[in-house]
């Protein structure tokens, strides 16, 4: 399935909801760690992304930069789905 950037962002935001409350109010370029996301929550987010988008994130992609913002996560998902 080929998702638009907006659809991907919306799905990522829905995964963030239990972690940060109202992700819709978060700018796509806002640093998630600055919002209080802990390292354990980041791991949970990564696992949720794998399940939501039916993909496996390879160890080489498990770097903080890929999970810093919604936009970075979006880019990672797009790369892994193609």
Automatic annotation (TrEMBL):
InterPro entries found in the cross-reference section: ACP-like_sf, PP-bd_ACP
Lineage: unclassified sequences, metagenomes, ecological metagenomes
Domain Carrier as annotated: residue spans: 3-81
Name of the protein in its database record: Carrier domain-containing protein
Matching Pfam families: PP-binding
